[in-house]
Amino acid sequence: MRYFILLVSFCSCALFSKAQSQESVPKNNNTNNTGMPGTVKADTTKMTPELEETIISGDKKTRTYKKEKALSPSFGKVAEEAEGLKDSNSSAQLQSAKYQFETNYSNSKHQLYRRSPSDLESSKMKQSAQLYADLLPGSFEKHFYTYLISKYSPKQFPELQQAAQLNPNKTEVQQELAVFGFATNNQQLADSVTLQMINQNKITNGVLDYATDLVNSVPSNGTLLLHGYTELIPANFEKNNLNRSDIELISVDLMQSPDYQQNLSKKGFVLPNSTFVDTAFVQEFCSLNASKNIYLSMSFPKEYFQGITKLLHPVGLTFGYKLNRFDYNTWNTNLIESVWQKNKIGISQDAQSDALSANYLPALISIERLYQEYNKSEEAKEMSALILNVAKRARKTSQLSKIKR
């Protein structure tokens, strides 16, 4: 059990810091990691013609900023509003509000023990959004900030649509649209935005390979809990490609939304009596829904596993929760020998998937020990070499030496 606890510690903690740096915060040229609503009425998800053309037509080039500016009347309105601010204190106030929003939003998304903003962070973000609503109501910031502070209410989806019209290629906007598609069972929207991100190399082939292995890690009729957008968007995309309708993906981020919680309740899940998502919330959710075959992504920070490590077992790229009658050794052996592409998982591809590759180590080490126990020396030797290659890829060789003592 000691080696297992060490694996939880170095895999999840290191991956959180790396993966979160890839996830979106509402800054220029950065990305964002928030939640989305559950079910919405059909008319609330109707895309404007301009946005639909930009997002859905995967084979067409996205229009340039200049063309969008010429076609969209909102650009003229924003420019007009901005022009009136040049010679006043309003411009400085807006810059301060932007900094305040982005700082508090980023802080709330880089906590090791929670996904929800604190009361203070929430209050500061609301102040900033309101200032933009008062002084620059047609701006991207007004629309996007309003959407992000709404706890992802379906009623605020038009705000996201407006933000997408103003800046369709902004990564965090694309992420929010893809997750909206996931949350509302609009797979066409989710897939089209994901494809756009793939074509723009915002989701790499290495991350897609990892997402495929993550989805394949979950046995039939399992429930996969995901910590952030870094895994959720490609995993949802690959789940659809692999026709894995038998498994359920659940976003911890989205459980901040009462609408999303209601959607899960309709599927038979029992929810904690809260919308503040933290380590206690996730552990209570697992306990309440143990019969749903819960599997937690290994990218959760280690704080989420404290106190429940004895209930967890490495199952592929996940930790299975309370698997009393599940032969996870046989499952992991089959994954490694027949499902995963062993020749690829030890080879460096890109920074993000290289960091995620550390999540292969728990299953690999457990199978290496199984081979050693059954005196399968050749298989154990091959597994040991693969483990070392993965550790080098993930830059975890020093931690690996502690685990294998």
Name a few traits of the molecule:
single chain, 405 residues, mainly alpha, five-stranded mixed beta sheet, 20 helices, 5 strands, 58% helix, elongated
Describe the model:
With 405 residues, the chain is mainly alpha-helical. It has 2 domains: 2-18 and 203-403, no CATH class; 31-181, no CATH class. It has 20 helices and 5 strands. It has helices at residues 2-22, 49-56, 65-71, 73-85, 90-109, 119-135, 140-148, 157-166, 171-183, 187-199, 205-217, 229-241, 258-266, 279-288, 328-339, 342-345, 351-356, 361-373, 377-394, 397-403; strands at 223-226, 248-251, 294-297, 312-315, 318-321. Strands 2-1-3-5-4 form a 5-stranded mixed beta sheet. Strand 1, helix 12 and strand 2 (248-251) form a beta-alpha-beta unit. The protein is elongated. The chain starts with a helix and ends with a helix.
Main structural class:
mainly alpha
Q: What is the string of SSEs from the N terminus onward?
A: HHHHHHHHHHHEHEHHEEEHHHHHH
Estimate nothing, just give the exact number of structural domains.
Answer: 2
Amount of beta strand? under 5%
Terminal Cα span: 13 Å
